[in-house]
Amino acid sequence: MSFGKTTAKKIAVLAVLTGLSLVAFIIESLFPPLIIPGAKMGIANVFSFTALIMYSPLEAFLIVAIRTVLGAVYAGNFSAVLYSFTGGVVSMAVSSLLMYLAYPKISVLAVSVAGAVAHNITQNVVFVFLSGSTLMFGYMPYLILLGILSGAIVGGVIMLIFRGVPKSVFEKVIFKREKEKVKT
Fold it and tell me: Which terminus of the chain is less hemmed in, N or C, by CB atoms within 10 Å?
């Protein structure tokens, strides 16, 4: 998909999803970590995952990139870019592959859980790489469990969103996406 075919409506939808993602990221950064230092629920991922379902991996990756950079600027935590960006990119890559290769054989919930677990593992690996502390690998089982929990919550929210919005809205978007794939 080229940006030349991007409509004003699509840009507006992506801007809203990006804005909501950023707001969720900032609000979530105000709360204390869950059990493990730095652990968050990842509610901002609802909006990038929605873009993945409605459009394509490109749009989802753009939302992740914009959210992590602007989120780090607003929160004043530039080291978060290293962790959030790498975790977000790997998570979205896993989610994209599963959505395009395995969905509907596996559910949106399963895709979300896999993406969240990949996100947590990636962030832990980046931390170990940067700090040189292999002791942090001891957190891996807990991070995987938190990834399962947060992925299930994010996936559940996405399923509720897509149930609450009339099916015709998404059929139009998905039909357009399929039609564009055929043209290219």
Answer: C
Q: What is the mean pLDDT of each run of 10 residues along the chain (184 residues)?
A: 66 93 89 73 92 92 94 78 89 94 90 96 92 88 93 93 72 56 58
* pTM as predicted: 0.82
